Amino acid sequence: MVPRALVPSFMEHVIWPSIIDPQRYGYDFWEIRERLIENHAGIPIPVYRFVVYGGRVAENVVHRTMDLVYGIEDTGLPSWFVDHVIAWIVGREQ
């Protein structure tokens, strides 16, 4: 799981690019992972390692986070994580 303090970086570098331009930044976990392997400049090392080496756990978290952003309510993610993701999105919209 992504540490609380790194949820904003996870959203900014992993999830959000694929939400705003999936064709360029990847539609699914494996495309996102490949993008990070090719260009990981500016990404905190723990976030990079989680996505690149986290296997099925990372795949699951990425897909569930994308579901959350798309408006699916019951993603099965921990409530603290959901709260941080929502706070990040709300902060971005302001």
What does this structure look like?
The protein has one domain (4-93). The model has no long low-confidence stretch (mean pLDDT 96). It starts with 6 loop residues before the first helix and ends with a helix. It is built from 6 helices and no strands. The protein is globular and about 30 Å long. By secondary structure, it is mainly alpha-helical. Helices cover 71% and strands 0% of the residues. It has helices at 7-20, 22-25, 29-38, 45-53, 55-69, 79-93.
In terms of topology, how is this protein built?
Blueprint: H1 7-20, H2 22-25, H3 29-38, H4 45-53, H5 55-69, H6 79-93
Question: What is the gist of this entry?
Answer:
This protein is mainly α and 94 residues long.
- Provide the structure class: mainly alpha
Radius of gyration (Å): 12 Å
SSE order: HHHHHH
Shape: globular
Kindly list the characteristics that best describe this protein.
single chain, 94 residues, mainly alpha, 6 helices, 71% helix
